[in-house]
Design goal:
The protein is an alpha/beta fold. The protein is 44% helix and 13% strand. Strand 4, helix 6 and strand 5 form a beta-alpha-beta unit.
Length: 282
């Protein structure tokens, strides 16, 4: 039987403080920076740390895109207002890019490259030397085509990654700082719900966003959710423990989704699987 002593708890807290201290030290050296802010757990910690260390020399850049879920837009505005972080909203329509909409296995790289170009343009206009990205060390263990675009950028840094922070570390630090994002589920853009090879259209994106809003009403707060959709059938992915309750409500969910033009609905029995709609190049 293992016993956690008071000393053990103190040591855990000291480790969290040391990790956060290393992050703030690395940001402080930059002098002035903008955070590529999505409202997720990673970029929220980064934005908070930058504001705390750089003050008014830190700001957040958010690409206000059709691919950004409505809930995330509300969270972004709430977080930056709560912590006094200056926010620049950049109108950006990923759907205007033909290569992106073709939805090839390189979609994420194409998207990230265009987005970093837009963020870099604003940074240069505002004389901000650094753009901070929320990648962490766990991203190195997954197939992330967008990481190539980050490496190609001349002004983009990834402080969480450079400090060796994992998603677990980031959540623990965020919890210690009492950030509301500490328990927020991992998120991805709405295009990630569309299977590779299926053309991305505004109609599909709008249906996915509206559909997930409907399904969330039948799930616990902060539950993981993806509604994969190819224009014909919707497949709901969530945490396995939520599947029995969701299954009982499937008829009601199907009725509501039918009202927005989604005729066929099923629940993935194996639960949420990251990137299940994406085909990786061989």
């Amino acid at each position: 039987m293992s016993v956690i002593s008071a000393t053990g708890k103190k040591d855990d807290l000291l480790i969290i403080k040391e990790k956060y201290g290393e992050l703030t030290d690395s940001i402080r050296k930059l002098g002035k920076a903008a955070i590529a802010f999505s409202g997720g757990v990673d970029s929220s910690l980064l934005a908070y740390a930058a504001k705390e260390t750089l003050g008014d020399n830190a700001c957040a850049f958010t690409l206000w895109s059709p691919l950004l879920p409505a809930d995330d837009k509300r969270d972004i505005l709430s977080f930056t207002d709560r912590y006094g972080i200056r926010l620049f909203k950049i109108e950006h329509n990923d759907l205007s890019c033909k290569d992106f909409c073709e939805n090839s296995p390189e979609r994420c790289y194409i998207c990230k490259s265009a987005r970093l170009d837009a963020l870099t343009s604003l940074a240069e206009e505002l004389d901000i030397p650094w753009l901070l990205d929320g990648s962490n060390i766990d991203d190195l263990n997954d197939w992330r085509p967008g990481m190539k675009a980050v490496r190609e950028s001349k002004i983009t840094l990834s402080p969480l990654l450079e400090c060796g922070l994992s998603k677990k570390d980031i959540r623990e630090i965020s919890s210690h700082l009492e950030l509301p994002t500490a328990v927020k589920p991992s998120a991805a853009c709405l295009a990630s719900r569309i299977p590779t090879g299926t053309a991305i259209t505004e109609e599909l994106i709008l249906k996915i966003d509206a559909g997930e809003d409907i399904i969330k009403k039948y799930l616990p707060a902060n539950a993981q959710l993806r509604m994969r959709y190819d224009g014909r059938a919707a497949k709901i992915e969530t945490d396995r423990e939520n599947i029995p309750g969701l299954s009982q409500s499937l008829a009601l969910i199907s009725e509501e989704l039918a009202l927005i033009g989604i005729a066929a609905v099923l629940i993935e029995k194996d639960g949420y699987m990251m990137g299940s709609a994406t085909v990786r190049p061989k």
